[in-house]
Amino acid sequence: MLFDPFIYHGMAEMHDRHRDMRLDVDNMSYEELLALGERIGDVSTGLSEETIMKCMKHRKFLAISEESPADMEPCCVCQEVYADEDDIGTLDCGHDFHTSCIKQWLMQKNLCPICKTTALLT
Asked: Where, by residue number, does the polypeptide cross the bilayer (predicted)?
């Protein structure tokens, strides 16, 4: 016979006190989701411009090889290939972007658009 600590301590019949507080958003209608959004409000997970500029690593892009533009990785935010002397911002995960592109992104959400990890630890 296996030892079950929940049954042993008489907790097998315990009611989940928080069950009624949980929302099942997967089964809510569009109107219910809109109403919920109005009640909750806008939740910003972004960073301030000052925090971004202070915490992000900055550098200039220098094209040192004769690679064709098709061989180069573009900025995944704007999909443009980096040009010589472009301002590049590097996140804590190591991914690079145009500074202006990633700054706008991080003001909305502090996640890397590629790997979804926390972009900048503050």
From this structure: none
Bridge partners of 60, per DSSP, are 87
Q: What is the span of the domain harbouring residue 12?
A: 5-40
The answer to whether 87 and 58 are in contact (CB under 8 A) is yes
113, part of any domain: no
Residues 100, 79, 88, 86: is their CA dihedral positive or negative?
Answer: negative
pLDDT, tens digit, 9 for 90 and up, residues 19-77: 666 778 788 899 998 898 888 887 778 999 999 999 999 999 987 766 555 557 899 99
Residue range 91-107, pLDDT digits in tens:
999 999 999 999 999 99
What are residue 45's DSSP bridge partners?
109
